[in-house]
Amino acid sequence: MNNYDAIIIGSGHNGLTTGCYLAKSGKTVLVLERRDTIGGAVCTETMFQSAENPNGFRMDVGSSVHIMIHQTGIIEELELEKYGLEYIEMDPIMSYPVPTGKGVIHFWKDVDRTLESISKVAPEDVKNYKEFIEFWGKINRSVLKAFMTPPTSKNIFTEMAKAQIRDGAMFKKGEQAAGLQKILSSYGKVVDDAFDNPYMKAALLWFAAQSGPLPDHSATGDFAGWQSMLHESGAKHPRGGSGMLTQAMKNLIEAHNGKVISNAPVEKILVENGKAVGVRTENREEYKAPIIVSNAHVQTTMMKMVGREHLEDSMFKKVKNINVGNGFGMVIRCAVEELPQYTAAPGDPYIHNGIQLMAPSVQYMNNAIGDYMKKLPPEKPAVLAMTFSKIDPDVAKDGKHTMFVWAQWHPYELANGLHWDDIREREAQKIYDVVVDYAPNMKGKLIDWYIQSPLDIERKHGLLRGNVMHVEMSFDQMFMFRPIPEMSSYETPIKNLYLSSASCHPGGGVFGAAGYNAAHVILKKHKRSFF
Fold it and tell me: What is the rounded distance in angstroms from the CA atom of residue 252 to the CA atom of residue 491?
């Protein structure tokens, strides 16, 4: 009864993506989730039920905005709409309310409509934005193909070469060196060089920062350039909350004779003669399968679930030395009486359709980074707000609203003897106060909140040191270097043990590419077993 064709450790969306493809290929799949709810960091929970609000609020407890997965074809291939998934367009994708005075820049899926919005606040950057999108769009169509294949030392460059043959030269004649320099530059410099208006610079730098590395890190230029892909896919919100994506994946697996079990933390991956043969949970249940896939963090998988006894010392050391970083950000999940009314855009009918960016200037962000480098929370955090109840009444049915506010550059490891359990509410209030600075009507409108400090994120989701990308997204840990070269193809030194999490290429976010790539590696490797 405890034998399956494949066992997936963890129910994050990448692991479930792998599970879905394996299930559709005819294999019986078992998913074991350590928490009482499935979905990993793509999960929605009902909170704050009361006599006044009997339905409570549908609160995402991890990733919220779905952008990159809509560039992959995964949703369509798996036909997830048949399993309960319905998406709502977020358009404009994001908005930047001017911090002083009036005006807002809306970034729509439609480029021309975006240019029209830019013209009202930053007319000097209309031409710059159009050229920026054209330049990076051609590059990123080939980069996306590289993201959707297991990494090698040549595939990113091979895809770029193919794109030049198929679509014409990537760079204009005589500008090849300058174009390559942009790709290898930092996203801070890319934004600074491309735009003139300080508000455009702040908006695009802040959005690019969501990938993780600091703005001055080299070879991160495309974190800003990926802006071009927003105009290809747009952004979407699952009706009922972010977790409806993983619920649909769960439904697919179960419809194909698979099983998803919650409250089943895996303690040990069972290894015999260098081969993974099953898993044991903390309650001593054992399950066997010829294929084991870990959606957990790479260090948790290899150092704890596999264990030092099954790894060579050099391999254990390499895994231990992966750069996890020192935290990332924190978020407050707020139930509120009403939506923010931004001083910069009173009565704007569109601003709550997407993300609201609140970072007044590049220097403001640099100050927050300076605090982070000192291992201190930012005195003035840069934040972005998400108000999904405007476009999805299912998340707040009693006339109230949800407001999620993400803030960045919050170190996991703190200086001066500080501990997150002691300061989490104080830092959460700082984040809420930034919203009040932009929208004074929000003062006193908080009904309740769910705080997730970097330490809380680690505890709830197993994201070590609070890094929501698993490991740093710096160039030395991307493509064939992620998580380490020896495991970049989703295989491990333990035969039949595979990785499928954001620890792997191409990294974090609601993308699904790591799970998709892992599934195809497994299907190819075990072809005789599957067909």
Answer: 25
Rounded Cα gap, residues 474 and 513, in angstroms: 18
CA angle 29, 32, 35 (to 5 degrees): 150
Residue type, 420: W
For 48, list phi and psi in degrees, rounded to 5: 60, 40
The ranges assigned to domains in the chain are: 6-42+240-323+472-530, 112-233
144: phi then psi, degrees, rounded to nearest 5:
-60, -40
The pLDDT-based confidence of 531 (bands split at 50, 70, 90) is very low
Average the pLDDT over each of 27-31, 178-182, 265-269, 351-355 and give the range with the smallest value.
178-182
Tokens of 419: 């501990």
Q: Is 220 left (phi over 0), alpha (psi -120 to 50) or beta?
A: alpha
Considering only CA atoms, give the Rg of the chain. 23
6-42+240-323+472-530 CATH: 3.50.50.60
**CA distance linking residue 106 with residue 120, whole number of Å:** 10
β pairing state of 292-294 and 497-499: parallel
| One-letter identity of residue 109 | K
- β-pair type (87-90, 235-238): antiparallel
Q: Name the token pair of 350.
A: 């569109």
Cα angle at 207 between 441 and 450, to 5 degrees? Answer: 50
Q: For the residues of 474-491, what is the DSSP string, one character each? A: SGGGSGGGSS-GGGTTSB
pLDDT digits (tens, 9 = 90+) for 221-234: 999 999 999 999 99
What predicted TM-score, i.e. pTM, was given to this entire model? 0.94
Residue 273 has pLDDT above 90, yes or no: yes
Which letter does DSSP use for residue 183 in this model? H
The single-letter code of the amino acid at 496 is: N
Q: What is the residue-averaged pLDDT of the chain?
A: 93
Whole-angstrom Cα distance, residue 357 to residue 99? 10
Structure-block tokens of residue 421: 């359990």
Can you say whether the dihedral through the CA atoms of 346, 347, 349, 355 is positive or negative?
positive
Q: Give me the count of residues in the chain.
A: 531
Q: Per mean pLDDT, which range of 68-82, 103-117, 153-167, 213-227 is the poorest?
A: 153-167
| pLDDT class of 101 with cuts at 50, 70, 90 | confident
Q: How many helices (H) and strands (E) does the chain have?
A: 18, 19
pLDDT digits (tens, 9 = 90+) for 55-65: 999 999 999 99
With tokens 């409108």, the residue in question is 445
